[in-house]
């Protein structure tokens, strides 16, 4: 059975959604990042970058959420667009991977988790997160799904991060991103999305952001200590 190493962060959740949509049997293995489990030797043997998600499918190990989505789509033949839409799908999927995810994640970091205020960094990442999300919103203005008029793995990738938009950009963000919100709501209504969201009930992940969690999640801060 396929093994799925996960937390409840945006990137693992989009893989969880694909697994639930496709009906692939899988074993969900929690990796508690606030306890530092992602840095253990057993896990870094799977992903040297020490990040979730990871899947192990027989003799094949795949890390990075977008690589996993592509791997699973090719494995199952599901949730890929028509051949003429593959190029646009790949372009937008890489846009999510190189833009939406990193800039939204850094916006969250400097807004909520930085050890001290950094106006320059927050301004940069807030600006870029907004810029990227507005590009997606404009793209969705005249279409239901991201490419090809059908629900694909790309919509799952957007959904994973769209769930974090209010935390990243503020509770009023949906007023400026109505089309992203429409896509989010449409995916949330799918039974598979409800099953994916229910992963939160399978394991009690550490909630406290204490010193142990900060060391595990932000090891770079140790370099600041004299």
Automatic annotation (TrEMBL):
It holds the Pfam family GST_N_2. It comes from the Bacteria. GO terms for molecular function: transferase activity. Keywords: Transferase. The keyword Transferase applies. Residues 1-80 form the GST N-terminal domain. The keyword Transferase applies. Residues 82-207 form the GST C-terminal domain. This is Glutathione S-transferase. It comes from Pseudaquabacterium pictum.
């Amino acid at each position: 059975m396929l093994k799925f190493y996960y937390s409840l962060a945006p990137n693992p959740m989009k893989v969880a959604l694909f697994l639930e949509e496709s009906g692939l049997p899988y074993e969900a293995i929690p990796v508690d990042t606030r306890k530092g489990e992602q840095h253990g030797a057993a896990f870094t043997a799977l992903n040297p970058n020490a990040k979730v998600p990871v899947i192990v499918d027989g003799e094949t190990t795949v890390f990075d959420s977008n690589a996993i989505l592509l791997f699973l789509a090719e494995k199952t033949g599901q949730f890929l667009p028509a051949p003429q839409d593959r190029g646009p799908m790949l372009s937008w999927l890489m846009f999510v991977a190189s833009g939406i995810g990193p800039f939204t994640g850094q916006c969250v970091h400097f807004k909520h988790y930085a050890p001290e205020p950094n106006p320059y960094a927050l301004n940069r990442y807030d600006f870029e997160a907004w810029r990227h999300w507005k590009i997606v919103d404009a793209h969705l203005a005249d279409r239901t799904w991201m490419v090809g008029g059908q629900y694909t793995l790309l919509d799952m990738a957007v959904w994973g991060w769209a769930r974090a938009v209010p935390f990243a950009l503020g509770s009023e963000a949906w007023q400026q991103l109505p089309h992203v919100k429409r896509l989010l709501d449409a995916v949330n209504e799918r039974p598979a999305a409800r099953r994916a969201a229910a992963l939160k009930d399978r394991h009690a992940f550490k909630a406290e952001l204490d010193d142990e969690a900060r060391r595990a999640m932000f090891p770079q801060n140790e370099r600041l200590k004299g």
